[in-house]
Amino acid sequence: MNDRVDLHLHTRCSDGHHTPEEIVQLAAAAGLKAIAVADHDNVDGIDEAMAAGAKLGVEVIAAVELSSQWQNYKDVHLLGYGFDHHHPLLVERLTEFRKFRASRNRVIVEKVNQQLAGEGRDPLDFVTIEALAGGTIGRPHIAQALRAADYVHTYDEAFDRYLVPNNVAKQFFPVDEAVSLIHAAGGVAVLAHPPYVTRNHGELETLLETFVSLGLDGLEAYNNGVNLEGVYWLINLARRHNLIVTGGSDFHGSEDSLISIGGGLGRFEIPYTCVDEIHSALYRHRQQG
């Protein structure tokens, strides 16, 4: 019996390259038992993914990846699982976030177009980028447009030459607010890919203790930032702090990515026990009122 899962997938509703239905089809083809569509600051693809999952026999868990910060840590990502994705407060806050992001990315495109004009090149069309995104526009969608115009050959080149020099600062949810928002919607909060926050073990554990005091429920032990030994270390870290363990590939589906759905970088498989732990944590939250 197959019990592999992938609890960190992105769709075109944020910065992925596939529709929610296509993501579920890929998961089914890969033989996955359960998945979570965890778009950046966006829950628009969950209903479509759940409908496709019901048809194809793939369990789809409501999820989101919130862009957070804590003190000097400017890119802490928190995953929410099992919440009501139509919860009014959650929808309101994400709508506000989307409005800011839309204005941010419009300014980025304007700055990129100024650089392109200086190079004697035609500008990018923001409406075309919106259509390409099919949801919340992110910098990867602008990178796609640069590739489509044949101004760059890879996504890395798009970022290096245009997107990094013309960046506009992002908005973040403070970690305590992000955790509270996920809990208010009935979900559990998990720290995504911990090695990308810091690779210093002592520093990570100290930071984790703070997050646990703020209500953090889990740790994404299975992630692309570690090898199998690193996974074991993160699992032990989670157990020491009474946290659940989850895992995901962070699959976006770009052509030049080495990450595969359900497999990440091919270092390990993610077991269904991660889903069991999410369900158990959700049950405990409901019992606690």
Care to describe what's here?
This protein has 289 residues and is of the alpha/beta class. The protein has two domains: 5-93 and 172-287, TIM Barrel, CATH 3.20.20.140; 105-163, DNA polymerase, domain 1 (Orthogonal Bundle). It is built from ten helices and eight strands. It has helices spanning 20-29, 46-56, 88-118, 126-133, 139-148, 155-163, 175-184, 201-213, 228-240, 273-287; strands at residues 5-9, 34-37, 59-70, 73-81, 173-174, 188-191, 218-222, 244-247. Strands 1, 2, 3, 4, 5, 6, 7 and 8 form an eight-stranded mixed sheet that branches. Strand 3 (59-70) and strand 4 (73-81) form a beta hairpin. Helix 1 packs parallel to helix 2 and helix 5 crosses helix 6 (155-163). It is globular. The mean pLDDT is 94.
Task: Describe the structure in brief.
The protein is α/β, with parallel strands linked by helices and 289 residues long.
CATH superfamily caption of the largest domain: Metal-dependent hydrolases
Helix content: 40-55%
CATH topology assignment of the largest domain: TIM Barrel
Number of helices: 10
For the residues shown, what is the average pLDDT?
94
User: What's the CATH class of the largest domain, please?
Assistant: Alpha Beta
**Tally of strands:** 8
How many domains comprise the coordinates? 2
CATH architecture label name of the largest domain:
Alpha-Beta Barrel
Shape field? globular
Percent of residues in beta strands?
15-25%
Order of helices and strands: EHEHEEHHHHEHEHEHEH
Radius of gyration: 19 Å
Low-confidence stretches: none
